């Protein structure tokens, strides 16, 4: 696998771990609140995150090489 993919995965894991590590109560409330949202809203939110991730990846790929 390309080292860029591993770097991206490492950054995702670091960012995902910061919430529960630094603010466990707030993170738990956020997850509980999100579990109550309708499916279509969660799909839109997830789709937006996917699109944002692809755009960032594309921009980094163009910049790095």
Summarize the helices and strands and which ones pair or pack:
Blueprint: H1 3-22, H2 24-35, H3 39-64
Helix pairs in contact: 1-2
Would you kindly provide a written description of the structure presented here, covering whatever features stand out?
This protein is mainly alpha-helical. It has one domain. Helices cover 89% and strands 0% of the residues. It contains three helices and no strands. Helix 1 (3-22) packs across helix 2 (24-35). The two termini are 16 Å apart.
| Structural class by SSE content | mainly alpha
Please give the radius of gyration in angstroms.
15 Å
- How many runs of DSSP E, i.e. beta strands? 0
* Beta-strand percent range: under 5%
Q: What is the global morphology?
A: flat
Mean pLDDT across every amino acid position: 90
Helix content: over 70%
Count of the separate structural domains: 1
Oligomeric organization of the protein chains:
single chain
Tally of helical runs:
3
Would you list the SSEs in sequence order as H and E?
Answer: HHH
Distance between the termini: 16 Å
Low-confidence stretches: none
Major sheet summary line: none
Which key features would you list for this structure?
single chain, mainly alpha, 65 residues, flat
What's this model, at a glance?
This protein has 65 residues and is mainly alpha-helical. It has three helices and no strands.
